[in-house]
Write a structure and sequence with these properties.
Length: 393
């Protein structure tokens, strides 16, 4: 059991989602507006379904936060489903109407979704319960957990941001300067330039008009980490492995790279590894960051850069061939209101999940029941090993 952990419950069209986060130190400020802001960023984008326009992600804190700060108890939060009344007759866990349940039945699994394997595994011929829990709606609850973790690491001077790098084969500028990261982080589609944003929108409109869907790629960056977060001593302490697991867990993500990732496989070592130098004050420095801030399963003090690749959305308005499981006859996949492209939203979930992994590693390494303890232990470690941003100051 890790020091920091979270669980979620709830269905996509159920009463709502529940997040319970345990292990945060007491005394961490949790402005509810910040949680709401991250949920709002997750809802934005272009090519998102009608639901994102309807949803308001009404958030309620049930415990573990008092007077704006964590108390040390598990933090329990819920996000209400604003369409609950519409779904209640078919989704109420305590009493639902068999006629409404029948109307919302799903017998034709969507290729690319959890429908078929999930239905077979849990014995649901009507795959509605699979859709409901496998849906990426759960990532709103993950975003809540990840944002709590993010508040913790931000209190240690660590910053997380992201940018979209491609949608449906159209590539856009990757941020290289602080200002560009800032712009991309705040842009609905995660772009540095408005013209790039328009190009992505155009590609999404094209897919929409063809009844198709799109995937793409994004990059997440973490600044302000000292060297030595994570460890090489056991496989499950390696930070890159833990990051990959968290990124791959995001629905639709099919590949993860740290730094230059797969491109390094084709180059000789002399063109890959980042030489170690000293600056004029005798401090260690790197001139390149192809490793993406991680060597030997640990941060090396450089910016952590993680790329992720998302497959196209599986729910299509022109559905793919499937079968009706109850009749075992050829048919077409189930259609449901859906996004056409969720890459800009997935990168917000990725910011939250990366924050989670970093916070987990930091809590394991430094621990502490109250925030000041964590901060003191972290800053005493930073004063021993150094941190790029502090060195510059
Ligand atoms: C934020 C977000 C929103 C998504 N929205 C949809 C959607 O509206 N419709 C859909 O079919 N898939 C959507 N997906 C993708 C599916 O959840 C995903 O492709 C599916 O769970 C199978 O992916 P897997 O094979 O990686 O588990 C979304 C993913 C994310 C991260």
């Amino acid at each position: 059991m890790g020091i920091l952990r979270f669980l979620t419950s709830g269905e996509s069209h159920g009463r709502g989602l529940i997040t319970v986060v345990e292990g945060l130190p007491a005394g961490l400020s949790v402005p509810i507006e910040r949680l709401e802001k991250e949920l709002e960023r997750r809802r934005r984008g272009y090519g998102r379904g009608a639901r994102m326009k309807i949803e308001k992600d009404h958030l309620t804190i049930w415990g573990g936060i008092w007077n704006g700060k964590t108390t040390g108890a598990p933090c329990g939060l819920t996000i209400e489903n604003s369409e609950w009344e519409e779904w209640r007759s078919s989704m109420d866990p305590q009493s639902c109407d068999p006629k409404a349940v029948k109307e919302k039945s799903v017998y034709c699994p969507r290729p690319g979704h959890a429908d078929l394997p999930g239905g077979l595994k849990y014995g649901h011929e009507n795959m509605r319960p699979v859709l409901e829990r496998a849906s990426a709606r759960a990532t709103a609850a993950w975003t809540v957990a990840g944002t709590l973790a993010r508040l913790l690491i931000e209190s240690l001077g660590i910053e997380v941001r992201s940018a979209v790098t491609s949608v449906g084969g159209v590539t856009v500028k990757v941020p290289s300067e602080e200002e560009e990261w800032h712009v991309a982080s705040n842009s609905p589609l995660g772009c540095v330039f408005q013209t790039d944003e328009e190009r992505l929108k155009e590609r999404i409109r094209e897919a929409m008009s063809e009844g198709d869907s799109l995937g793409g790629a994004f990059v997440v960056s973490v600044k302000g980490l000292p060297p030595g977060v994570g460890s090489y001593v056991e496989w499950d302490r390696r930070l890159d492995g833990r990051i990959a697991q968290a990124m791959m867990a995001i629905p639709g993500i099919k590949g993860v790279e740290v730094g230059e990732g797969g491109r390094l496989a084709d180059l000789p070592g002399s063109q890959v590894h980042d030489g170690i130098f000293m600056d004029e004050k005798g401090r260690i420095k790197r001139e390149t960051n192809r490793a993406g801030g991680i060597e030997g399963g640990m941060t090396n003090g450089e910016e952590v850069l993680v790329r992720a690749f998302m497959k196209p959305i599986p729910t299509l308005t022109r559905p793919l061939p499937s079968i009706r499981l109850d009749l075992m006859e050829a048919s077409f996949a189930h259609r449901e209101r859906s996004d056409v492209c969720a890459v800009p939203a997935a990168r917000i979930v990725a910011e939250a999940m990366l924050s989670w992994v970093i916070a987990e590693a930091i809590m394991e390494q430094f621990g502490g029941d109250i925030l000041e303890e964590v901060q003191e232990r972290f800053s005493s470690y930073v004063s021993r090993v150094g941190r790029r941003d502090d060195e510059k100051a």
